[in-house]
Protein backbone atom coordinates (compact mmCIF):
# COMPACT_ATOMS: atom_id res chain seq x y z
CA UNK A 1 0.00 0.00 0.00
CA UNK A 2 2.86 2.40 0.73
CA UNK A 3 4.15 2.18 -2.81
CA UNK A 4 0.69 2.75 -4.22
CA UNK A 5 0.29 6.00 -2.27
CA UNK A 6 3.44 7.40 -3.88
CA UNK A 7 1.52 7.82 -7.14
CA UNK A 8 -2.04 8.46 -5.96
CA UNK A 9 -1.44 12.23 -6.01
CA UNK A 10 0.39 12.44 -9.35
CA UNK A 11 -1.79 10.44 -11.76
CA UNK A 12 -2.56 13.46 -13.98
CA UNK A 13 1.09 14.56 -14.05
CA UNK A 14 2.13 10.98 -14.86
CA UNK A 15 -0.27 10.84 -17.80
CA UNK A 16 0.74 14.27 -19.08
CA UNK A 17 4.50 14.04 -18.72
CA UNK A 18 5.78 10.49 -18.78
CA UNK A 19 7.38 9.27 -22.02
CA UNK A 20 6.26 6.18 -23.88
CA UNK A 21 8.62 3.42 -25.05
CA UNK A 22 10.51 2.88 -28.32
CA UNK A 23 9.15 0.74 -31.15
CA UNK A 24 12.31 -1.38 -31.07
CA UNK A 25 11.31 -2.67 -27.64
CA UNK A 26 8.05 -4.10 -28.99
CA UNK A 27 9.84 -5.49 -32.05
CA UNK A 28 12.17 -7.31 -29.63
CA UNK A 29 9.27 -8.70 -27.59
CA UNK A 30 7.75 -10.08 -30.78
CA UNK A 31 11.07 -11.69 -31.73
CA UNK A 32 11.41 -13.32 -28.29
CA UNK A 33 7.78 -14.43 -28.34
CA UNK A 34 8.19 -15.81 -31.86
CA UNK A 35 4.93 -14.28 -33.08
CA UNK A 36 3.35 -10.89 -33.71
CA UNK A 37 1.73 -9.13 -30.79
CA UNK A 38 -1.47 -8.95 -32.86
CA UNK A 39 -3.96 -11.34 -31.29
CA UNK A 40 -1.77 -12.11 -28.27
CA UNK A 41 -3.15 -11.80 -24.74
CA UNK A 42 -0.87 -9.49 -22.75
CA UNK A 43 -1.16 -8.83 -19.02
CA UNK A 44 0.42 -5.48 -18.14
CA UNK A 45 1.38 -5.44 -14.44
CA UNK A 46 1.53 -2.13 -12.59
CA UNK A 47 0.06 -0.54 -15.69
CA UNK A 48 -0.06 2.96 -14.20
CA UNK A 49 -1.92 5.28 -16.54
CA UNK A 50 -1.71 2.74 -19.38
CA UNK A 51 1.18 4.06 -21.47
CA UNK A 52 2.60 0.63 -22.29
CA UNK A 53 -0.86 -0.97 -22.34
CA UNK A 54 -1.99 1.31 -25.17
CA UNK A 55 1.22 0.75 -27.13
CA UNK A 56 0.72 -3.01 -26.85
CA UNK A 57 -2.90 -2.61 -27.97
CA UNK A 58 -1.77 -0.48 -30.92
CA UNK A 59 0.22 -3.54 -32.04
CA UNK A 60 -2.97 -5.59 -31.93
CA UNK A 61 -2.56 -7.24 -28.52
CA UNK A 62 -5.52 -7.83 -26.20
CA UNK A 63 -4.31 -6.19 -23.00
CA UNK A 64 -5.42 -6.73 -19.43
CA UNK A 65 -4.06 -3.59 -17.75
CA UNK A 66 -3.63 -4.39 -14.05
CA UNK A 67 -3.11 -1.47 -11.66
CA UNK A 68 -3.53 -1.27 -7.87
CA UNK A 69 -3.83 2.50 -7.31
CA UNK A 70 -7.35 3.88 -7.60
CA UNK A 71 -6.38 7.30 -9.00
CA UNK A 72 -3.95 5.72 -11.46
CA UNK A 73 -6.47 3.22 -12.82
CA UNK A 74 -9.09 5.96 -13.08
CA UNK A 75 -6.64 7.91 -15.25
CA UNK A 76 -5.82 4.74 -17.22
CA UNK A 77 -9.50 4.09 -17.87
CA UNK A 78 -10.12 7.66 -19.05
CA UNK A 79 -7.03 7.78 -21.27
CA UNK A 80 -7.73 4.35 -22.78
CA UNK A 81 -11.38 4.99 -23.62
CA UNK A 82 -10.61 5.01 -27.34
CA UNK A 83 -8.35 1.96 -27.20
CA UNK A 84 -10.56 -1.10 -27.69
CA UNK A 85 -7.74 -3.52 -26.91
CA UNK A 86 -7.20 -2.33 -23.33
CA UNK A 87 -9.21 -3.79 -20.43
CA UNK A 88 -8.46 -2.00 -17.12
CA UNK A 89 -8.55 -4.19 -14.02
CA UNK A 90 -7.80 -2.99 -10.50
CA UNK A 91 -5.59 -5.49 -8.70
CA UNK A 92 -2.15 -6.49 -7.51
CA UNK A 93 0.76 -7.95 -9.45
CA UNK A 94 1.35 -10.27 -6.49
CA UNK A 95 -2.20 -11.69 -6.64
CA UNK A 96 -3.18 -11.48 -10.31
CA UNK A 97 -6.96 -11.95 -10.61
CA UNK A 98 -6.70 -14.16 -13.71
CA UNK A 99 -6.73 -17.91 -14.32
CA UNK A 100 -3.66 -20.05 -14.83
CA UNK A 101 -1.96 -20.22 -18.25
CA UNK A 102 -4.11 -17.49 -19.81
CA UNK A 103 -1.47 -15.07 -21.13
CA UNK A 104 1.00 -15.14 -24.00
CA UNK A 105 2.89 -12.17 -22.58
CA UNK A 106 3.20 -10.55 -19.16
CA UNK A 107 4.73 -7.08 -19.10
CA UNK A 108 5.78 -4.65 -16.40
CA UNK A 109 6.76 -1.18 -17.59
CA UNK A 110 8.52 1.10 -15.10
CA UNK A 111 7.13 -0.84 -12.13
CA UNK A 112 8.91 -4.12 -11.39
CA UNK A 113 11.13 -2.46 -8.78
CA UNK A 114 8.01 -1.88 -6.65
CA UNK A 115 7.06 -5.59 -6.69
CA UNK A 116 8.32 -8.23 -4.25
CA UNK A 117 9.89 -10.79 -6.61
CA UNK A 118 9.21 -13.63 -4.16
CA UNK A 119 5.50 -12.97 -4.74
CA UNK A 120 5.56 -11.53 -8.25
CA UNK A 121 7.60 -14.21 -10.03
CA UNK A 122 5.31 -17.14 -9.11
CA UNK A 123 2.31 -15.08 -10.19
CA UNK A 124 3.57 -14.18 -13.65
CA UNK A 125 4.73 -17.79 -14.13
CA UNK A 126 1.27 -18.98 -13.14
CA UNK A 127 -0.62 -16.88 -15.67
CA UNK A 128 1.82 -17.40 -18.56
CA UNK A 129 1.16 -20.16 -21.06
CA UNK A 130 4.04 -22.59 -21.80
CA UNK A 131 6.47 -20.76 -24.05
CA UNK A 132 5.13 -17.39 -22.91
CA UNK A 133 7.28 -14.33 -22.28
CA UNK A 134 7.70 -11.99 -19.32
CA UNK A 135 9.21 -8.58 -20.08
CA UNK A 136 10.03 -5.81 -17.59
CA UNK A 137 11.46 -2.49 -18.73
CA UNK A 138 12.42 0.96 -17.54
CA UNK A 139 13.08 4.32 -19.17
CA UNK A 140 16.31 5.60 -17.63
CA UNK A 141 16.92 9.34 -18.10
CA UNK A 142 20.44 9.98 -19.37
CA UNK A 143 22.33 12.63 -17.43
CA UNK A 144 25.61 13.30 -19.23
CA UNK A 145 25.18 16.78 -20.72
CA UNK A 146 25.88 19.88 -18.64
CA UNK A 147 22.24 20.77 -18.01
CA UNK A 148 21.38 17.13 -17.24
CA UNK A 149 24.18 16.83 -14.69
CA UNK A 150 23.21 20.15 -13.11
CA UNK A 151 19.62 18.97 -12.67
CA UNK A 152 20.83 15.67 -11.22
CA UNK A 153 22.90 17.60 -8.67
CA UNK A 154 19.82 19.58 -7.62
CA UNK A 155 17.82 16.34 -7.25
CA UNK A 156 20.65 14.87 -5.19
CA UNK A 157 20.61 17.91 -2.92
CA UNK A 158 16.85 17.73 -2.44
CA UNK A 159 16.55 13.96 -2.14
CA UNK A 160 19.81 12.13 -1.62
CA UNK A 161 18.18 8.69 -1.75
CA UNK A 162 16.37 9.20 -5.06
CA UNK A 163 18.71 6.89 -7.02
CA UNK A 164 17.61 3.95 -4.87
CA UNK A 165 14.25 4.09 -6.63
CA UNK A 166 16.07 3.22 -9.85
CA UNK A 167 18.00 0.26 -8.47
CA UNK A 168 17.12 -2.30 -11.12
CA UNK A 169 17.00 -6.04 -10.35
CA UNK A 170 20.07 -7.83 -11.67
CA UNK A 171 18.54 -11.28 -11.76
CA UNK A 172 15.61 -13.41 -10.66
CA UNK A 173 15.54 -15.95 -7.85
CA UNK A 174 17.72 -18.88 -8.95
CA UNK A 175 15.24 -21.42 -7.67
CA UNK A 176 13.03 -20.62 -10.67
CA UNK A 177 15.86 -21.44 -13.11
CA UNK A 178 14.91 -18.60 -15.45
CA UNK A 179 17.24 -17.47 -18.21
CA UNK A 180 17.22 -13.70 -18.55
CA UNK A 181 17.95 -11.74 -21.72
CA UNK A 182 18.81 -8.04 -21.41
CA UNK A 183 18.52 -5.29 -24.00
CA UNK A 184 19.04 -1.52 -24.12
CA UNK A 185 17.44 0.96 -26.51
CA UNK A 186 18.62 4.56 -26.78
CA UNK A 187 16.31 7.33 -27.95
CA UNK A 188 15.17 10.88 -27.24
CA UNK A 189 12.21 13.19 -27.49
CA UNK A 190 11.89 16.93 -28.00
CA UNK A 191 9.42 18.46 -25.55
CA UNK A 192 8.33 21.72 -24.03
CA UNK A 193 9.95 22.61 -20.71
CA UNK A 194 6.57 22.30 -18.98
CA UNK A 195 6.12 18.73 -20.21
CA UNK A 196 9.58 17.85 -18.97
CA UNK A 197 8.59 19.29 -15.59
CA UNK A 198 5.36 17.26 -15.55
CA UNK A 199 7.49 14.17 -16.12
CA UNK A 200 9.83 15.18 -13.30
CA UNK A 201 6.99 16.08 -10.92
CA UNK A 202 5.42 12.64 -11.45
CA UNK A 203 8.47 10.89 -9.95
CA UNK A 204 7.83 9.39 -6.53
CA UNK A 205 10.94 10.98 -5.02
CA UNK A 206 9.83 14.45 -6.13
CA UNK A 207 6.23 13.93 -5.01
CA UNK A 208 7.49 13.00 -1.53
CA UNK A 209 9.58 16.15 -1.03
CA UNK A 210 8.35 18.52 1.72
CA UNK A 211 7.49 21.12 -0.95
CA UNK A 212 7.53 19.56 -4.44
CA UNK A 213 5.86 22.64 -5.97
CA UNK A 214 8.76 24.83 -4.86
CA UNK A 215 11.30 22.42 -6.32
CA UNK A 216 9.48 22.37 -9.67
CA UNK A 217 9.13 26.16 -9.67
CA UNK A 218 12.90 26.53 -9.27
CA UNK A 219 13.50 24.02 -12.05
CA UNK A 220 11.10 25.92 -14.32
CA UNK A 221 12.99 29.17 -13.77
CA UNK A 222 16.40 27.58 -14.39
CA UNK A 223 15.31 25.62 -17.46
CA UNK A 224 13.53 28.53 -19.09
CA UNK A 225 16.75 30.51 -18.69
CA UNK A 226 18.77 27.65 -20.20
CA UNK A 227 16.26 27.00 -23.00
CA UNK A 228 14.78 30.38 -24.01
CA UNK A 229 12.75 28.85 -26.85
CA UNK A 230 10.92 26.76 -24.25
CA UNK A 231 11.95 23.36 -25.64
CA UNK A 232 14.54 20.78 -24.62
CA UNK A 233 15.56 17.25 -25.54
CA UNK A 234 15.12 14.45 -23.04
CA UNK A 235 17.41 11.47 -23.66
CA UNK A 236 16.62 7.94 -22.51
CA UNK A 237 18.03 4.45 -22.33
CA UNK A 238 15.21 1.92 -22.13
CA UNK A 239 16.40 -1.24 -20.37
CA UNK A 240 14.49 -4.47 -21.04
CA UNK A 241 14.73 -7.72 -19.08
CA UNK A 242 12.97 -10.64 -20.78
CA UNK A 243 12.28 -14.23 -19.71
CA UNK A 244 10.76 -16.96 -21.87
CA UNK A 245 9.10 -19.82 -20.02
CA UNK A 246 9.74 -23.41 -21.16
CA UNK A 247 7.46 -24.77 -23.88
CA UNK A 248 5.03 -27.48 -22.87
CA UNK A 249 6.84 -30.80 -23.15
CA UNK A 250 4.13 -32.95 -21.58
CA UNK A 251 2.14 -33.50 -24.77
CA UNK A 252 2.83 -36.81 -26.52
Task: Describe the overall structure.
With 252 residues, this protein is an alpha/beta fold. The protein has a domain at 2-142 and 167-188 and 235-244: Vaccinia Virus protein VP39 (Rossmann fold, 3-Layer(aba) Sandwich). The protein is 38% helix and 25% strand. The protein has a seven-stranded mixed beta sheet with strand order 3-2-1-4-5-7-6. Strand 1, helix 4 (51-58) and strand 2 (62-67) form a beta-alpha-beta unit.
Blueprint of the fold:
Layout: H1 2-8, H2 11-17, H3 23-33, E1 41-45, H4 51-58, E2 62-67, H5 70-79, E3 86-90, E4 103-109, H6 117-127, E5 128-141, H7 146-158, E6 180-192, H8 193-201, H9 204-207, H10 212-226, E7 231-244
Parallel strand pairs: 1-2, 1-4, 2-3, 4-5
Antiparallel strand pairs: 5-7, 6-7
Q: Give me the strand/helix succession.
A: HHHEHEHEEHEHEHHHE
Termini gap: 45 Å
Q: What's the name of the CATH homologous superfamily of one domain? A: Vaccinia Virus protein VP39
Strand order of the largest sheet: 3-2-1-4-5-7-6
Give the overall shape: globular
Q: Using the 3D structure, state the CATH architecture of one domain.
A: 3-Layer(aba) Sandwich
Number of helices: 10
CATH topology of one domain: Rossmann fold
Class of one domain, according to the CATH hierarchy? Alpha Beta
Question: How many whole angstroms does the radius of gyration measure?
Answer: 19 Å
Question: Roughly what fraction of the amino acids lie in strands?
Answer: 25-35%
Can I get a quick summary?
The protein has 10 helices and 7 strands. The protein has 252 residues and is an alpha/beta fold.
Amino acid sequence: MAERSKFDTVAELYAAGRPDYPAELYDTLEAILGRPLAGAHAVDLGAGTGIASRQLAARGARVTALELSGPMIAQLTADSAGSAGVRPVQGSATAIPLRDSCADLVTCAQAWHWIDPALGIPEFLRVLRPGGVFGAWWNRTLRELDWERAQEARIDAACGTWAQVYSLPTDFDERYELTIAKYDFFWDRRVMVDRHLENLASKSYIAELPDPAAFIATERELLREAFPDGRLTERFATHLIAVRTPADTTAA
